[in-house]
Amino acid sequence: MRFFRGLPYLALKKLFHFVDYETRLSLQKCSKRTKKLVDAMPFYFELVDISTQPLRIRICEDKGETMTYSNITGLIYNSVRELCQTLFKWIHENTVEKQLNHLWEIFRNKNIRIKTLFVSLTLLCPYDSEFAWVSFERIRLVCCLMKIMLFSLDHQLLVENFIIEYNENHDQVMCFLPFLHPEYLKFIKFINCKSSHAYIGPIVNLPQVIQCRRVVFDGFTWVRMENFQHLPGVCEHDLNLYAYHFQHYFQHNTFEYFGMKGVKDDWFPDVSNTFIDDKNRKSMIVEGPKFAIKIVHKLEKKTIVLQRISLASRNV
Amino acid sequence: MSVEPEVPIVQVEEVRENPVLYKIISSDNHVFTISEHAVKLSKTLWDLITNLGLTAENALDNPIPVENVNGKNMETIVQFCERHKYDEEEPEYTNYIREFVLPEWDRQLLSIDNEELFQLILATNYLDIQKLMDYCCRVIGDMAKDKTPEELRIIYGIPTDAEDDALERSASDSPGPSG
């Protein structure tokens, strides 16, 4: 019997494009040779969603929301069970571990590629101290287990978009982000859920953030602008930046743009050298030695956008 | 070209819009006529036609022998190419979307014996027809859905570990090219 009926490698590769994850698992069991082949073939997940309230792991193979493991009953059972445990204010560590083990089995494969990894570490009932404690303990457990799990892998995960929402400090982000392949990441979004001590200093210095094409910080208040000056493309939502040191950007030739949402209507100081641009927006241009930065106030969107422009276009 | 057709020419579709036709001879000497637009779907054939310098005037006088593809597969391929010759170029589907709609006409065309389908893939691979390759792989990918490892072994022709070991042993025991 000829292996895969003699299909050439290119055809095999294409065939694996249409084989779902369940079938790959079955193929792995056929023989050692098929296991090697399956492990070598890339597999693409549309979404891996890890939420802690209650603990729910959703893995979608494509936009049709295919559930991996076809374990919808298991997912519902686990969610209900977790919710009940929250109501009775205790955490069943085995349930958490068991669910994360499924994930580990998938992540062990070097050829797994994930379009979006969404991590939600939000507190349930933050104003009820007992509920909040159960929530916090679950988050802590999930983060610890994830860190151990990701650390034990001999490779970094290939994730295109990483979105994380969290209540606490940067430690939670550090349980995930350093284990993602910096060169594969295209988009990162940090969503701060009303925490006043969500420091971003250690995060913005990670290679994953530095190399990423687009980074969004949402809900961070009172952030120093210098934190972002080495990043090529940053977008900020609902923030109060203090110390606008635009001049710092001129020291980093990688600067592309910087956007801030939720700014006041009178954002430009009175003494600014502003003008109204061709799109009727209040603007200002700051010149540096190699390029200039155009600062535009988009009133309708309550947004300030800093964009790199060439010195030549500034003169036009 | 010395190959004389032994069977009548298979006129797959009357081509009104484009007068340029090419003749293809399969490995078992069946002759097929295919239009220029259709033959362009096969990168291998179109490269061959370009390299041979075939034109509208001399195309029918110079049949192209394709020794790796038999008549049955060639008939399916010609039907497919004629059907899809005016299709707009589809955007390359992303790696994350495995689901695309396989048209009913193509599903019917590819509703053939398992072994024949694999032979068709080999022919498609040789002739380098991307769209047909996608469709064939989709069909054999669908075949595997919800199947046990045993069933998969039969569908895809996967030897067991013992068979693989035996094959490896016999390969290592057999004398090499030098004897």
From TrEMBL, chain A:
Superkingdom of the organism of origin: Eukaryota
Pfam families attached to this UniProt entry: F-box
InterPro entries (UniProt xref): F-box_dom
Domain F-box: start-end pairs: 1-47
Protein name: F-box domain-containing protein
Organism listed in the record: Caenorhabditis latens
UniProtKB/TrEMBL annotation, chain B:
Similarity comment text for this entry: Belongs to the SKP1 family.
Family annotation (Pfam families): Skp1, Skp1_POZ
Every SKP1 component POZ domain range: 23-85
InterPro entries with a match to the protein in the record: SKP1, SKP1-like, SKP1-like_dim_sf, SKP1/BTB/POZ_sf, Skp1_comp_dimer, Skp1_comp_POZ
GO biological-process terms attached to the record: ubiquitin-dependent protein catabolic process
Source species of the chain: Caenorhabditis latens
Record key words, sorted: Ubl conjugation pathway
Residue ranges annotated for the SKP1 component dimerisation domain, each copy included: 130-166
Stated name of the protein: Skp1-related protein
SMART domains for this protein: Skp1 (SM00512)
Highest taxon of source: Eukaryota
Biological classification of the source: Eukaryota, Metazoa, Ecdysozoa, Nematoda, Chromadorea
